[in-house]
Structures are given as structure tokens and as C-alpha cells.
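Data card: per-record layout.
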Amino acid sequence: MTHLSRRVFVTAAAASLLVSCAEHGGDGASAARPRGTHVTPHPSAGSSNASAAPSGSVPVRLRIPGIGVDTPVMRLGLAQDGSVQVPPITARDQAGWYRSSPAPGQTGPSVILGHVTVGPYGDGVFRRLDRLRRGDEITVRLENGTSAEFTVTSVRTVAKAEFPTEAVYGDVDRPELRLITCGGPRTGDGYLDNVIVFAASHTTRR
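The structure for this 206-residue chain is written out next.
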């Protein structure tokens, strides 16, 4: 993302998680904590950022053969303003797992964020995320040496103001994956939309 801006805006009428994009040297893939709505991955105000993942199940690498992604995965928590952190803007761009979401392979929606562009360094790790299609394979390597494998079920490009909070972060009864970046038309200070990949797990192996 050029800068998936790091803030979620929630209206009184409907709490929605906005992943926005603004030019600040790169695009931030943010998914900050909404207030006043039940959204599984987000801790309540004042809670710690400790990972809920069982020991050894933290993701360390993401591979998406269909779009040439093979990247380390860092851990992301919450920034001081209560929004989700994003990976730093560096030449060696990588994806980031929101550590208060379920670990890949655990029941629930695991959330991984990435940039589409990284300012002066060019393309981000999720530059081609919108090219994924239903049936494409995604593998997440875990710290304990196992891999959680997912199949893309859908790819959506949505306006920032219409971010589907519940669809992305709501409870599910199986292991699922969400990949989020910026997309759509580009304006002077970023992108107008977000690209969201929905994927479901089909196996975990060593």
C-alpha cells in the first residue's frame, strides 16, 4: 500500500474497520481496532498486545506462488493511538501478522498486512495481491516448523469507507486467512480502495 493509513474510523451508526492509504513514504496496511463492535481479532481498550497464538504457532514466512510472493512475516501489535501497526517502510519489505488475531491454522480469521508500494523503494510485497483468484494456494510457515495451507475463496476490492469489518474480522468456525493491502484508483496522497483476499485452510503439515 502506499500508505495503508494507520487508523480506523468508526461512526456511531455503524462501526467499520477502515484500512486506508495515504502517501507517507510508503503505503500502510493498517487495520486499527474498532470501538463499540464485537470483532474477534481486536483486544479491548487497555488490554495487552500479547499474542494469543499457542507456543510455536507464530507465522514466520508467507508464500503465494501464483503472484511470486515469498516473504518473511513480522509480528504487528497496536500503535499508541490504538490502531494496528504496519510493517516499516524499508527496501527489504515484508508482510506483517497482527498478533492479536488467531495464528494461521487456528480457528478464526488470521490477519496479515502488506504494502503495495514502499515509497522510494518501489513495489511492496503485496503489489500483485489483486491478481489472486479463487483456488490459488497460500502457504504460511510457522515457527514450530509446520505449515498452514490455505486456498483463496474470494478477492475483493472495496472502497475505504465501505470496509467490510465483520466479514474480515468476525467469528468463523474454521481456520481462515485475510490478506490486506491498498488498491484501486490512486490519488495524490494514496489509494482509494483496499484489496482483501479471503482464504480458507485445508491442511496443516510438517
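Known properties of this structure: The mean pLDDT is 77. Helices lie at 165-169.

See the next section for split statistics.
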